[in-house]
Amino acid sequence: MPRFTFHRLWAIVLKEFIQMKRDRVTFAMMVGIPLMQLMLFGFAINSDPKHLPAAVRAADQGPFARTLVAALRNSDYFTLTREAPTEAEADRLLKLGDVQFVINIPEDFSRQLLRGERPTVLIEADATDPAATGPALSAVRAIASTVLSRDLTGPNARLRGADGPVDFQVHAHYNPENITQYNVVPGLMGVVLTMTMVVITALAITRERERGTMENLLATPVRPFEVMVGKILPYIVVGYIQVSLILLAARFIFGVPMVGNLALVYAVALLFIACNLAMGITFSSLAQNQLQAVQMAFFFFLPSILLSGFMFPFRGMPEWAQWVGSCLPNTHFLRIVRGILLKGNGLAEIAPELWPLALFLIIAMTIGVKRYRQTLD
Amino acid sequence: MTAAAANPAELAIDVTGITKRFGQKTVVNAIDLQVRRGEIYGFLGPNGSGKTTFIRMLCGLLTPDGGQGTCLGFDVLKQQAEIKRQVGYMTQKFSYYEDLSLRENLDFIARIYDVPDRATAVQRSLDRLGLANRSTQLAGQLSGGWKQRLALAACLIHSPKLLLLDEPTAGVDPKARREFWEEIHQLAADGLTVLITTHYMDEAERCHRLAYLAYGNLLARGTLPEVLAGAQLTTWVVAGPGLRELAAALKKLDGVEQVVAFGTTLHVSGRDPQKIEAAIAAVRDPRHEWKQIRSGLEDVFISLMDTAKDNFA
């Protein structure tokens, strides 16, 4: 039995360091991934989202109503982006996801308040993501009592009341019971597809290069476009199997309501799967070996999970993070799937999320085809 | 008659001044090459001499930085797609799919080339190379010799007009090598042009014509007798005791360019016959037996390589 020796151990350690030094991409990833995680978790992610877009439908223009609107505007939680003149308009804004809340101030708000009748303010919330709406809804009561109490002075001070001067009714649309699974399970579809599709195809071309079969393939008349699409097509089938499994589980295990058209989900999934496959193929043509390809896929996967609105409310992130998130196909796909399944959105409502997917696909595919070298030069 | 004077229609490969640079390094330096149709052309040279790079340029895998010419009548710079369709290229490293069976590999290649009546073509190819009873075996499980046969079968499946073989017999046993060469000669007799790189001298001697490449330069070419005569090398063989000391002494003498041990003898070569005879006279020992022999291909190639090194050092 040979004894353990330090010089043999040291030989292995030195060799590992030399190899680590040679593989620049891996080395960059070792530094890059922790930095990215630090940025994402440290700065971008916020489970107490602020500045949520809201619309106000104020039927009363009295002083108290204006005080309330001003207070909401000044609070961190809301950004009053719209005036919604009609109920139909308010519904549409919610459905498109343009606003998270619609705040309805009734016609004789100020008068009722002065009479001590505790007027009802109806807050309609897009509750598909309970995490995004919860903190804001609890804040609204506090804000209202504080500002109105300030205005209710002198003889009116008695109106402050124990429960506050105003009664808030919250109408949680699309997910009235605030069930997290309703939001997470459809979102999972995007995450699962991103993970498997990008990784599998990222390996596809790199494997050919690593095993030497690429040289052979390049010597044949096969065109780059044929190789790319030929490698993508089989995985579209795999992607559809995943979509079906998740939909079945969502329906029968988690009882997620499916208000919208499932055929539309399948149609959009094609575009989304293609986006991820094109991304994977592009990584594949950039990476020198399979390890690098997996690392690149991971580098893409991390923001796709954290910045897309899957794990944390999209609107809770700072602007730069939202901007990064908007470049990721998963962000748009999540909104589409949640929109179709939970809100019953149709093609018209999801259109604003479709073109970014199409744009992403075109860009990724172009880079991929360009980077795929037809010769070994 | 030289190759250059041959009828252009008879030339499968006709290139001049082909050059390839990787960064500052010129890997292939202005090579002219003419290969006739139906000819087996041997390409020799030390490792890193540019053989593989040259072959890759012929089949469109690399774009030459300079030079021009045709391969099977197509422009090597512009018509790479047409060339790829009619060339069979066997890479140095086995480059078929190890996780596909023999039949699946052949079928894949046949589909890529759009071979007519594919099923028959695949079966014929399996039969001809004696792989029929192994058709369901995975390529990764094959031994070196069988992998080489599969690779040959695969690059012949689309009936190419030109076969480019990059060290096809490296690591293959002598019997398999012999069978491989018989196959190559049969194919050439049927009209296929073959360009083959090798390090084996016996294989070089089986080619119709040879070219010797070192450090990116073409140093010699022609038939075997032409190459041997062109080198103008004088070789003596010596047998007897104390050869190691003798070799050391000879290497210091003017006119002695190489001293190589061959079993119990030494081969002593140089390009100047007078100088080498003078050198031999200087170390003459009655116990040694000296004899002048015809220089072998290996002596010639080593001499060419040493000369090339002097020129490029």
Topology (SSEs and partners):
The complex is a heterodimer of chains A (377) and B (313).
Chain A: H1 6-22, H2 24-44, E1 52-58, H3 63-74, E2 78-83, H4 87-96, E3 101-105, H5 109-114, E4 120-126, H6 130-151, E5 167-173, H7 180-211, H8 213-219, H9 224-252, H10 262-286, H11 290-306, H12 319-326, H13 329-343, H14 347-371
Parallel strand pairs in A: 1-2, 1-3, 4-5
Antiparallel strand pairs in A: 3-4
Helix pairs in contact in A: 2-11, 3-6, 7-9, 7-10, 7-11, 7-13, 9-10, 10-11, 10-13, 10-14, 13-14
Chain B: E1 11-22, E2 25-36, E3 40-44, H1 51-58, E4 66-71, E5 74-75, H2 80-86, E6 87-90, H3 102-112, H4 118-128, H5 144-156, E7 162-166, H6 174-189, E8 193-197, H7 201-204, E9 209-214, E10 217-222, H8 224-231, E11 234-239, H9 243-251, E12 258-262, E13 265-270, H10 273-283, E14 289-293, H11 297-312
Parallel strand pairs in B: 3-8, 3-9, 6-7, 7-8
Antiparallel strand pairs in B: 1-2, 1-4, 4-5, 9-10, 11-13, 11-14, 12-13
